């Protein structure tokens, strides 16, 4: 019996047959030259045409997707026509290099540059390599890489998935997802959770598994076992019974002793909001407004934005909807707003900071949000991403007041904001912790790298301590202001208990996560959650923190979590 261990990122137990991701497009030979019958101009035209075909296909797939999947596909589509990528290839073609080899070398250079920048830009490196392979496939007239086709459902195994592939996973065909690379906050992990697929990342060696091998995958434990026996089949049967009960959220987040913890939804647009409302979400804790801006060469008009926001607000009449202003830059470049030549975009002009280089865009967005809010009964709050100082918080709050928005808040993604939360909350009415970025910036760990998965865990005691300090700031100096979590940490039922114990007031997550989080919260009192939080904060490392808390929650075994 062969076992593999990685990081469990989405719970579930499944037995199925392995299907490996197809081998990648082979590299064009080094030094490959243009055919004597093909001029540089003709090869350049072919390359541009191929990039447009690839972009159109990715856009088509984006139109059929929603939420996080849609945004990933749209971002990848933008990369397919990225001027830096294409121009570098054209320069090589002019010297006589074949179009296939030119785009290959150009893609390698751009990807290496982005990877070396780390953080969010490393994610774009994956996009570049994916796009490069698709363009080469189009030039060769062969099928582009993608999820394997199969008449029967299967367990998908890969070194890692390109964002565009991850975004088009079909949960009716893919039973579980296992990769040897990636991390707990990678695109692969986020999309798996959104789809409810059992998933394990950073499981070294699984790419050697053969197609057709029968395996048992435990997405909570982070394990894969070849040739499962009766014990594993019994575990799958038990999970199937539990999964039915975990598919429904009763609409009220609360601890065992009645302490209310509203469970809100992370959404990217009206379609997501409607589904979240139907799933029992108590409101929206994160509306990612940049989804309205992606794939645009020009800024959307105020009227266009009003329509997009109203679709979300109307799905939650009388309930809270927290709107995050445009989080452009780094992994979400926008042609009309971000500078693609920045040496380190993840530490550059992104989020709130774009108002420094493109003044007016944020003001117009706030006007659109206020206009949409006035025509809706939703209780609209608004927050800015990447706030690092008290002055920035004050400036944003002032802009909100001018626009007519009464509840301004800030994202705590930068350690300085956590450390200075008391002062920041003299200007803002609430804070929301973006644990993905807070973890990445605190630990200086690229969330895409499987080798850094342990560092890039929100269970890191240093990250938990920053959350604790944020809450302390919100309740000091006469404050009594709410603290929410809208990062991926909120979707972890075990970590949710710790967050509540640290004093977090609301949790926001994918709609699929609400039932499991709600079930585990109902198994503990607030006092017990506080005790478990201290166990985690005082741990030596992330593994010890997680192990300590899991050992004190017997309901996890019962629920297969």
UniProtKB/TrEMBL annotation:
Transferase among keywords: yes
Location(s), subcellular: Cytoplasm
Residue numbers binding phosphoenolpyruvate: 288, 324, 436-437, 447
Keyword Cell wall biogenesis/degradation attributed: no
Necessary cofactors: Mg(2+)
Residues in PEP-utilising enzyme C-terminal domain copies: 254-524
UniProt xrefs under InterPro entries: PEP-util_enz_mobile_dom, PEP-utilizing_PTS_enzyme, PEP_util_C, PEP_util_CS, Phosphohistidine_dom_sf, PTS_EI, PTS_EI-like, PTS_EIN
Source domain of life: Bacteria
Pfam families cross-referenced by the UniProt entry: PEP-utilisers_N, PEP-utilizers, PEP-utilizers_C
Active site: 187 (tele-phosphohistidine intermediate), 486 (proton donor)
Record protein name field: Phosphoenolpyruvate-protein phosphotransferase
Lineage: Bacteria, Bacillati, Actinomycetota, Actinomycetes, Micrococcales
């Amino acid at each position: 019996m062969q076992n593999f261990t990685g990081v469990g990122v989405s719970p579930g137990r499944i037995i199925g047959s392995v299907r490996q991701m197809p081998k990648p497009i082979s590299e064009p030979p080094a030094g490959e030259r243009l055919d004597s019958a093909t001029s540089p101009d003709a090869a350049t035209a072919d390359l541009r045409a191929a990039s447009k075909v690839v972009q159109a296909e990715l856009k088509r797939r984006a139109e059929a997707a929603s939420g996080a999947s849609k945004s990933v596909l749209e971002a990848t589509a933008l990369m397919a026509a990225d001027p830096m990528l294409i121009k570098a290839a054209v320069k090589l073609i002019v010297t006589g290099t074949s179009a296939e080899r030119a785009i290959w070398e150009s893609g390698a250079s751009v990807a290496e540059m982005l990877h070396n920048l780390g953080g969010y830009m490393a994610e774009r490196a994956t996009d570049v390599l994916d796009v490069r392979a698709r363009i080469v496939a189009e030039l060769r007239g062969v099928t582009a890489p993608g999820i394997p086709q199969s008449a029967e459902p299967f367990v998908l195994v890969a070194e890692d998935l390109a964002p565009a592939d991850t975004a088009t996973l079909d949960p009716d065909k893919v039973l579980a997802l296992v990769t040897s690379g990636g991390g707990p906050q990678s695109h692969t992990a986020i999309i798996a959770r959104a789809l409810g697929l059992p998933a394990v990342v950073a499981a070294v060696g699984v790419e050697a598994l053969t197609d057709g091998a029968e395996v048992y995958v435990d997405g909570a434990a982070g394990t894969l076992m070849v040739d499962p026996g009766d014990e594993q089949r019994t575990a799958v049967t038990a999970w199937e019974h539990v999964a039915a009960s975990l598919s429904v959220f009763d609409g009220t987040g609360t601890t065992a002793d009645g302490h209310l913890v509203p469970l809100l939804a992370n959404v990217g647009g009206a379609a997501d909001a409607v589904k979240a409302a139907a799933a029992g979400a108590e409101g929206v804790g994160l509306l990612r407004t940049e989804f309205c801006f992606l794939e645009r060469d020009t800024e959307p008009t105020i009227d266009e934005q009003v329509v997009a926001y109203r679709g979300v607000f109307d799905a939650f009449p009388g309930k809270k909807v927290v709107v995050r202003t445009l989080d452009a830059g780094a992994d979400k470049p926008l042609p009309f707003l971000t500078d693609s030549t920045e040496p380190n975009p993840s530490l550059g002009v992104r989020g709130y900071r774009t108002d420094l280089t493109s003044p007016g865009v944020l003001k117009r967005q706030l006007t659109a949000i206020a206009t949409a809010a006035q025509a809706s009964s939703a209780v609209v709050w608004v927050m800015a991403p990447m706030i690092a100082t008290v002055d920035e918080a004050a400036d944003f709050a002032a802009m909100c007041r001018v626009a007519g928005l009464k509840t301004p808040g800030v994202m705590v993604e930068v350690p300085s904001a956590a450390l200075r939360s008391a002062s920041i909350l003299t200007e803002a009415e609430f804070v929301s912790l973006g644990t993905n970025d807070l973890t990445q910036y605190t630990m200086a760990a690229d969330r895409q790298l499987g080798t850094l998965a342990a560092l890039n865990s929100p269970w890191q005691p240093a990250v938990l301590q920053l959350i604790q300090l944020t809450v302390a700031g919100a309740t000091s100096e006469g404050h009594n202001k709410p603290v929410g979590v809208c990062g991926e940490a909120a979707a972890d039922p075990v970590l949710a208990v710790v967050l509540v114990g640290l004093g977090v007031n609301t949790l926001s997550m994918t709609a699929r996560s609400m039932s499991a989080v709600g079930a585990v919260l109902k198994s503990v009192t607030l006092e017990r959650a506080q005790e478990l939080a201290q166990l985690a904060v005082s741990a030596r490392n992330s593994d010890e923190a997680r192990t300590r808390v899991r050992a004190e929650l017997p309901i996890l075994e019962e629920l297969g979590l």
